[in-house]
Write a structure and sequence with these properties.
Elements lengths: L1 H4 L6 E5 L4 H12 L3 E5 L3 H12 L5 E4 L6 H15 L4 E4 L14 H29 L2 E6 L12 H20 L5 E8 L5 H9 L3 H8 L12 H8 L10 E4 L7
Helix pairs in contact: 2-9, 4-5, 5-6
Length: 255
C-alpha cells in the first residue's frame, strides 16, 4: 500500500528547465515513478539528450522548446499539452538563471531577466495549469526555490529576490487553490552540482571550500538527490502537505 502512495502511473508531469541539472534529476524521479514527463527547455540539444535519458526508462516523454517567461509562448505550450494529453497533473517550475554581480552593478535589464525567468515564469505556468488541474479534480505544483530564499549573498540580489518570491508565491497559490484540491509546495535545493553552480565556483573564490565546510553531509548535492522529494510532492503521499518550503541541502541550512 505504501508503494502505491508514490505511484504516478497515468499522471502527466510538466517540468520547466527539465533538460538538465535539478530539473532533469526531478524529471527522472517522476519518470521512474511512472509519470509521463514533458520536458520544457530552450536548448534543443540539451532537451533531445534529456529526452533520450528519460525514454531509456521506458516511460513516454516529450520535449517542448518554449520561453516560459513569455506569456504568449506559455499559453501556446499549455494549449498543446491540453490538446495532446487532455490534462496536467504535476507542474514543476524549475526554469532558472542568475547574474552574479553586486547589486549596484546590476542593470535593470539583468534584474528583469532574472526575475522573469525565475519568478514570472512560475506565475505564468501556474496560471495556465490551474484550469487543467481544476478540471481534472486536483493537481500538484512544485516550485523550485533555493537556499537563497533563506540566506543572502552579495552577488545574488536578483536571484535571491526571485527565490524569496517563489516561496511567498507558493504560499499564496496553496491557499487560493486548496479548494480545487491543488497542493503547491516549494523545494529549496542547497548547493547542488549543476552547470549553474559550476559557474559560481569559477566566479566566487573559496565557495567550494565554504560549502563543504558548512554542509554536514560533507559533499555537494547531485541532481538525483532531488528525485525523491519530487516524487513525494507529486504523489498522493503528500495530499495533506501544502504551502511548505522544504530544504534539500545536506543540512547546510541548520549548521
Amino acid at each position: 500500500m505504501l508503494e502505491g502512495m508514490f505511484q504516478l502511473t497515468g499522471k502527466i508531469a510538466l517540468v520547466t528547465g527539465g533538460n538538465g541539472g535539478i530539473g532533469l534529476g526531478m524529471a527522472k524521479g517522476l519518470a521512474q515513478a511512472g509519470a509521463t514527463v514533458l520536458v520544457v527547455g530552450r536548448n534543443a540539444d540539451k532537451s533531445a539528450a534529456a529526452l533520450a535519458e528519460l525514454r531509456a526508462q521506458d516511460v513516454p516523454s516529450q520535449c517542448f522548446a518554449t520561453d516560459v517567461a513569455d506569456e504568449a509562448a506559455v499559453a501556446e505550450l499549455f494549449s498543446k499539452v491540453a490538446a495532446r494529453h487532455g490534462r496536467i497533473d504535476i507542474l514543476v517550475n524549475n526554469a532558472g538563471t542568475t547574474v552574479r554581480k553586486s547589486p549596484e552593478q546590476l542593470t535593470l535589464d539583468e534584474w528583469r531577466q532574472v526575475l522573469d525567468v525565475n519568478l514570472t515564469s512560475a506565475f505564468l505556468c501556474c496560471r495556465a495549469a490551474h484550469p487543467l488541474m481544476q478540471a481534472a479534480g486536483g493537481g500538484k505544483i512544485i516550485n523550485i526555490g533555493s537556499m537563497m530564499s533563506i540566506f543572502g549573498a552579495p552577488y545574488a540580489s536578483a536571484y535571491g529576490a526571485s527565490k524569496g518570491g517563489i516561496v511567498q508565491f507558493t504560499r499564496s497559490i496553496a491557499t487560493a487553490w486548496a479548494k480545487d484540491n491543488i497542493q503547491a509546495n516549494a523545494v529549496l535545493p542547497g548547493w547542488i552540482d549543476t552547470e549553474l553552480t559550476r559557474g559560481a565556483r569559477e566566479q566566487v573564490a573559496g565557495l567550494n571550500e565554504r560549502v563543504l565546510a558548512r554542509t554536514p553531509a560533507g559533499r555537494w548535492g547531485a541532481p538525483g538527490d532531488l528525485a525523491g522529494i519530487a516524487v513525494f510532492l507529486a504523489s498522493s503521499a503528500s495530499d495533506f502537505v501544502t504551502g511548505t518550503a522544504i530544504p534539500v541541502d545536506g543540512g547546510y541550512s541548520i549548521s
